[in-house]
Amino acid sequence: MTQHFKARTIETTKSFWTIFPGLCKGCGLCMQKCPKKCLSWSDVLGVYGTPSVEPNDECIACGICQTVCPDCAINVTKKKEERKAG
């Protein structure tokens, strides 16, 4: 399996992201629709030779990017909030 097809997991403050560079065609739709504008182009190239995306810590884990991705290249899992004892 080449690096282009391996899923990458990225942890942000509020979520875990799984990005599939082999599926991403670099259309940028996820970047356009992100309400926090927290996505940027990655150095990892997808199968088409285009860059995939990666989030930063401003991600609120809303999942809009996952919903609009036409290639199902993004999976966002929101972290469970820890409740403070008291």
Strands, helices and their partners?
Layout: E1 8-11, E2 15-19, H1 29-33, E3 39-45, E4 51-55, H2 64-68, E5 74-78
Antiparallel strand pairs: 1-2, 2-5, 3-4
Radius of gyration over C-alpha positions, nearest whole angstrom: 13 Å
- Poorly predicted tracts of residues: none
Mean pLDDT across residues: 88
Principal-axis shape: globular
Strand arrangement in the largest pleated sheet: 1-2-5
Order of helices and strands: EEHEEHE
Kindly give the count of domains. 1
What is the number of E strands? 5
CATH class: Alpha Beta
**What structural class do the secondary elements suggest?**
mainly beta
Question: How much helicity do the residues have?
Answer: 10-25%
The largest pleated sheet is described as:
3 strands, antiparallel
CATH topology-level name:
Alpha-Beta Plaits
Distance between the termini: 49 Å
β-strand amount: 25-35%
What's the CATH architecture?
2-Layer Sandwich
Count of DSSP-assigned helices:
2
InterPro entries: 4Fe4S_Fe-S-bd, 4Fe4S_Fe_S_CS
Keywords: Iron, Iron-sulfur, Metal-binding
GO molecular function: iron-sulfur cluster binding; metal ion binding
Domain 4Fe-4S ferredoxin-type: 15-44, 49-79
